[in-house]
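Reopening this ticket.

The earlier resolution said the output was attached, but the attachment link was broken on my side. Pasting everything inline this time so it's all in one place.
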Amino acid sequence: MAGIPGSRIVRPEEQPTSSFGWGQIKFLCEPQLCNAEHLTVGHVRLAPGQGHLRHNHPGSEEVLFILEGEGEQMVETDLEERGGQPEFFQVKKGDLVHIPASVFHQTVNTGEGVLELLAVYSPCGPEAVIRALPDHEPQPAGPWPELPSTG
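Inline output:
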């Protein structure tokens, strides 16, 4: 019996890292890894002062769960074409942020330590867009690479 394809357990140290000027992400659940059909999960790390500036994920909603650290989160109040305005708030370990599909948002690490978060996208798709960004630097599977110093 063949069973359902894809990984049932994923260990971050066995996954590649996608590095960018704004931080790092390891995808832990996605179609090519887990055969996921409806969601993508990524573990994100941002050094102090780092962050991903205003962007959106067309057609995908997102949940951010803050695992460690603190930062400033912006989520616009509505879709851009309906006059959405930026709304800023502080986030810290244990907070959850919901971002509706296609709504612009940004996350910046305003703390002194690393800001770590779990990003969940539904439906799948943002992982391919993220990997296609021009500043994407793929790193081999293994432990997290060093984050850049902001000192």
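Reporter confirms the inline version is readable. The two ends are 55 Å apart (CA to CA). The first helix runs from residue 31 to 34.
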